[in-house]
Design a protein that fits this description.
The complex is a heterodimer of chains A (142) and B (398). Chain A is an alpha/beta fold and 142 residues long. Helix content of chain A is 39%, strand content 16%. The radius of gyration of chain A is 17 Å and the shape is globular. Chain B is mainly beta and 398 residues long. Classes of the chains: A alpha/beta (142), B mainly beta (398).
């Protein structure tokens, strides 16, 4: 009985989540970064402009994927707790006040990986399947 | 109240263009453009009742538009130049540089700016014109009523994480000159020694805000007619001639110590949103009323829809420019001091707004950068008729 209920719940979850992309998203930095992990809060603070440096103190330059990418939507929902329009509204509150500039849109998985691999201060996110030795994973969004 | 000094506008525009032009010379190609647009309009339920908001007709007019363009150029790694050019339908789309400033990022946490800045009176002051950034078409006009939104001066903006809280503090000093339309006549208005502090304390989904501002406020009210062939200026001269110089002084707005305070709360959990603000304006020794204004808003998001309800209130208190004049005394021309007292009381009372408004609104995010909004305002004027207003706007950022 319990098993059956669980199966129903699981099936419902699968259906409910069918429109989402289940792929894991990895938050990546340059391999030379002096740390191996960040918390969800650390990452959120950088991408919401609340902090401009890594917890260790070195300056951080966050880069986004382009609007509409599955990884970006998943990252915004999971880390920034905002859907695409809320994210846009949040940044328009800062942009038009001179109080902040949103992370640049750097492109897709490959483009963001290339930017992060080439810049010691960068932080980005890509689909886990695209991760290779050119970058270091410091947080994973399951 | 409308700003209508073409000369100053031209000068401001020239300044802004110069600023914008200077940036590419210093560092060609590194200019950031961003902009916002709001197009919309509305209609009243009853033209025979006092108009409300930006509308005065029973027929739908779609002429309440704002276009803004912001240009930011990096002068060097630490210094940027920003200009915001705004064209409003209510000003016949005259382009106005509402902001133009140089910004120095002194450290990660400290930013110093100089030029024309937005005065941080309210929680939404910074992005007042960017409707896309909030739920309403415009924030409640009971609270968002001050005619001066900008200041020429310097400010320092500091952000800091205190324990688990995010805090910010903004302090500024400056002055402002504008031309307002009061009682149908243009009048010069200015602030001197204007200064203020605005602080926020927040965490994840909530933010508290408090602000304090003070200024020496001068508004030329002398040309405002209060009767046939009688202006406030004439009446003040008469009071002075009759020996009531103190009362004449209270009638005029000349370097009066004005104080404005604000408290705000903002909540956004993703599913639920809420906001509340309370403001008080103390005109000092001037005939302007003491303004006590507030609103509370609550809303819920469902997919790309946001439904919200707002209650706002203006509950001003009249000042007493007549205080000190003895009643029932014979005076030349006016006959009795009672006439003076009555006139002063009437002028003070004319500055009082007492109003309750309930607004229902919907925001629909039709795309990631565009929101379509509808709003219904039910206006209850205490000493005048009621009104209902229907409005719509499409607001975008780019």
């Amino acid at each position: 009985m319990i098993n059956k209920s669980l199966r129903v719940v699981a099936a419902t979850l699968m259906l409910g989540g069918a429109s989402f992309v289940w792929a894991e998203v990895a938050v990546i930095v340059h391999p030379s970064a002096g740390f191996d992990a960040l918390t969800e809060d650390d990452v959120a603070r950088l991408f919401l402009g609340k902090s401009k440096s890594f917890p260790a103190g070195s300056p951080a330059v966050p880069v986004n994927q382009n609007e509409g990418s599955a990884a970006r939507d998943k990252f915004n929902e999971a880390i920034c707790k905002k859907n695409a329009s809320q994210y846009k509204a949040y940044w328009s509150q800062l942009v038009f006040t001179g109080k902040g500039t949103p992370p640049k849109d750097a492109g897709d998985d490959a483009a963001v990986k290339a930017v992060v691999a080439a810049n010691a201060n960068s932080i980005g996110y890509i689909d886990s399947s695209a991760v290779d030795a050119s970058v270091k994973v410091v947080y994973k969004i399951p | 109240m409308k700003s209508n000094n073409p000369h100053r506008k031209t000068r401001k525009l020239a300044l802004a263009i110069a600023l914008v032009m200077a940036a590419p010379l210093t560092l060609a190609g590194d200019l950031d453009f961003s902009g916002f647009l709001s197009v919309g309009g509305g209609m009243l339920d009853d033209e025979n009742s006092p108009p409300y908001g930006d509308y005065d007709e029973e027929d739908l007019t779609l002429d309440n538009n704002i276009l803004g363009l912001q240009v930011t150029g990096a002068v060097n790694e630490k210094i940027t130049a920003t200009a915001q050019l705004i064209a409003r339908s209510e000003n016949d789309y005259e382009v106005d540089a509402e902001w133009a400033y140089l910004s120095w990022q002194a450290s990660d946490a400290i930013k110093v700016r100089g030029g024309r800045l937005r005065t941080p009176f309210y929680m939404y002051s910074d992005y007042l014109d960017v409707g896309y950034a909030y739920a309403w078409i415009t924030p409640p006009s009971e609270v968002y009523y001050l005619p001066f939104n900008n200041v020429d001066g310097v400010d320092i903006y500091v952000t800091k994480t205190l324990g688990i809280f995010d805090t910010s503090l903004q302090a500024y000093f400056g002055s402002f000159d504008d031309e307002l339309e009061l009682g149908g006549v243009p009048s010069e208005a200015k602030t001197r020694n204007q200064m203020g502090l605005a602080g926020t304390l927040g965490k994840d989904w909530w933010t508290l805000r408090a602000a304090y501002h003070q200024a020496d406020l001068t508004v030329d009210v002398t040309g405002i007619p209060i009767g046939p062939n009688l202006t406030i200026g004439d009446f003040a001269s008469a009071l002075e001639a009759l020996g009531y110089a103190d009362n004449a002084n209270r009638l005029l707005v000349e370097e009066d110590d004005a104080v404005f305070t604000e408290f705000g709360l903002n909540i956004d959990t993703g599913r639920f949103v809420a906001a509340a603000e309370y403001v008080e304006f103390d005109p000092g020794d001037a005939v302007l009323s003491k303004n006590i204004r507030q609103y509370v808003m609550g809303g819920v998001r469902a997919g790309s829809w946001l439904f919200h309800v707002t209650g706002s209130q203006a509950k001003d208190e009249a000042t007493h420019p007549e205080a000190g004049i003895p009643p029932n005394q014979a005076v030349p021309i006016f006959g009795s001091t009672n006439v003076l007292i009555g006139t002063l009381e009437a002028i003070a009372q004319s500055q009082v707004v007492e109003r309750d408004v309930v607004s229902l609104g919907v925001r629909w995010d039709v795309a990631s950068s565009a929101a379509l909004k509808f709003q219904y305002d039910d206006v209850d004027n205490k000493n005048a008729g009621d009104q209902k207003v229907y409005s719509v706007a499409l607001q975008t950022v780019f």
